[in-house]
Amino acid sequence: MRALTWHGEQDVRIDEVPEPEIVNPTDAIIEITATAICGSDLHLYNGYMPGMREGDVLGHEPMGEVVEVGSEVETLEVGDRVVVPFTISCGSCWFCGHDLYSLCDNSNPNAEMASEVMGHSPAGLLGFSHMLGGYAGGQAEYLRVPYADVGPIKIESDLPDEQVLFLSDIFPTGFMAAENAEIEENDTVAVWGCGPVGQFAIQSAWMLGADRVIAIDRIPERLEMARDHGDAEIIHFEEDDVYDRLMSMTGNRGPDRCIDAVGTEAHGTGVMGLADQVKQEARLEDDRPHVLRQAIKCCRKGGTLSVPGVYIGRSDNLPFGSVMNKALTIKTGQTHVQRYLNPLLEKIEDGEIDPSFVISHQVGLEDGPEMYETFNNKEDDCIKVVMTP
Ligand code: NAD
Ligand code: ZN
């Protein structure tokens, strides 16, 4: 079959690879009908994620039709149409039992590798390096779905793929980001990053009762989407001083809730290789722009900082003294996608939201390598790429 594969920094190819097979009796195989490129894929594309190997199949935002099920799969049948969460979860460990699906204890067969770095291992993720399980991803014609009874959600209505596909990641991710921000009545919510995750964080902030939403980016079409579709007030971070603007917009108090929907690749931070990181950690001061540092500085005293943006390694150099003395709450993590599937599908079915608004490019799988480049460089008004194999 054809699949998009990783071959090193900024080198994604379309390759012929073996079709996936059932490995465990709880697996299913799906034939992909739609699959998206995520901002998280850019961390792999740019070579920031340890544990990638040449030929790894990319992709963690897939949906499709079940074509085979293992002998122990109970909830899915051949022919079912499903969206597959990027988080792989066993459904029976302590963490899954507490609705903490992205922290599943059993789904990363390479847990030792992750534990060495982090002390513990989070869940395995589809198409996201050997450190997080080494699972082949869904930017391909077929995908093996582990723990098929726990993750995939069946789509029984005739909603098109474009409207339900983002249940796999970015809609739940934006929603959990807003939930983690602990939004209360009359709150002003500031969202850094108007990529797909930021856009869904904006939508979700309104759903959870925000009074004002302020969106920050530098890409014109993304800021326009935040303003026109997201009803947000906007700040262009290269044209304006973000701290000064936020203070003047909030009577110097600062936004009550801050969401970092940017992560490790923040523009202007010059993300580093591991050797550079070690050098940087030795430095006390770091005045390069950095979303987390900026959000900590801007957030009102006693406010909440929610971080859906993905951080890798120790590239952040956080002013923890400010966090402590301003009594900030920080909440973060990979999304517990399974937790949000049913409630968010309901919102789509009820017409409360049509997630397809973020799609800027719909192409074939063979256009994937070019699309990675376009999406990475934020060219051609690219906001979200959906591919159909
Ligand atoms: P994206 O790359 O399309 O969007 C990032 C946006 O941030 C861009 O529009 C960019 O211009 C903007 N940006 C860069 N520097 C900035 C700065 N200094 N201030 C304000 N904005 C800035 O990516 P995306 O798909 O929207 O994903 C965003 C982040 O969310 C990524 O880090 C991704 O890995 C992460 N993510 C996390 C989860 C999760 O489970 N927690 C899931 C999906 C994605
Ligand atoms: Zn993603």
UniProtKB/TrEMBL annotation:
Key word Ion transport present: no
A biological-process GO annotation: small molecule metabolic process
Entry keyword annotation includes Zinc: yes
Record-annotated Alcohol dehydrogenase-like N-terminal domain positions: 25-153
Family from the record: Belongs to the zinc-containing alcohol dehydrogenase family.
Protein name: Glutathione-dependent formaldehyde dehydrogenase
InterPro entries: ADH-like_C, ADH-like_N, ADH_Zn_CS, GroES-like_sf, NAD(P)-bd_dom_sf
GO MF annotation list: adenyl nucleotide binding; anion binding; oxidoreductase activity, acting on the CH-OH group of donors, NAD or NADP as acceptor; zinc ion binding
The entry's keywords: Metal-binding, Oxidoreductase, Zinc
